[in-house]
Design a protein that fits this description.
The complex is a heterodimer of chains A (117) and B (114). Chain A has 117 residues and is an all-beta fold. In chain A, 0% of the residues lie in helices and 55% in strands. Chain A is built from no helices and twelve strands. Chain B is built from no helices and eleven strands. Classes of the chains: A mainly beta (117), B mainly beta (114).
């Protein structure tokens, strides 16, 4: 079975500090996708990134960057120069093929990030 | 910008009552998902529709939960009777195609069962 582990339950940092959120996954699929979602207090899940298992290049988008390492089954997320608006719960997720022919997302338990002004 | 709509945003009910949640996906999205998110956990898929057909309802507690998408557009998730353990956030998502895993989520319905 597929599994996503986010060992950091809660993180607090002072504004402008850098912070890294860890994600470790388990899968037997050779082709899969990894995701990060942000869930602000309002509740909706906001899509941040999707990464194909064959693309191990790191990605940077503004203050956000992602480090995908297949060798350690990790897909870590770094926020540079954190801001108060970054406070939210962040979920890492893994897509899996099911017996029904669809793809299903398996989510981690989330990391609650608090940025202290 | 197109969004997934859900209503109500909040629902408080007593156990043994019936509740229903509504979702309107992004226009043109053939695939619709209902997730349940218990406090402190990640979302868990309850049911997936492709147009009006159920693709995967393996995690849906069918003794009390039902879902329908009669015209392949909007969808209703029902719980009857509600139990205390059903208190959670119910999220709806949609995607363009059957195996397109880029899902767009609605704001959710937060259910409290007393």
């Amino acid at each position: 079975a597929q599994k996503v582990t986010q060992a950091q339950t809660e993180i607090s940092v002072v504004e402008k500090e850098d912070v890294t959120l860890d994600c470790v996954y388990e899968t037997r699929d050779t082709t899969y996708y990894l995701f990060w979602y942000k869930q602000p207090p309002s509740g909706e899940l906001v899509f941040l990134i999707r990464r194909n298992s064959f693309d191990e290049q790191n990605e940077i988008s503004g203050r956000y960057s992602w480090n995908f390492q297949k060798s350690t089954s990790s897909f870590n997320f770094t926020i540079t120069a954190s801001q108060v608006v970054d406070s939210a719960v962040y979920f890492c997720a893994l897509s899996e093929d099911t017996n029904f022919g669809n793809e299903k997302l398996t989510f981690g338990t989330g990391t609650r990030l608090t940025i202290i002004p | 910008e197109a969004e997934v709509a859900q209503s109500p945003r909040y629902k408080i009910t007593e156990k043994s009552q019936a509740v229903a949640f509504w979702c309107d996906p992004i226009s043109g999205h053939a695939t619709l998902y209902w997730y349940r998110q218990i406090l402190g956990q990640g979302p868990e898929l309850l049911v997936q529709f492709q147009d009006e057909s159920v693709v995967d309802d393996s995690q849906l507690p069918k003794d009390r939960f039902s879902a329908e998408r009669l015209k392949g557009v909007d969808s209703t998730l029902k719980i009857q009777p509600a139990e205390l353990g059903d208190s959670a956030m119910y999220l709806c998502a949609s995607s363009l195609a059957y195996r397109d895993n880029e899902q767009f989520f609605g704001p959710g319905t937060r259910l409290t069962v007393l």
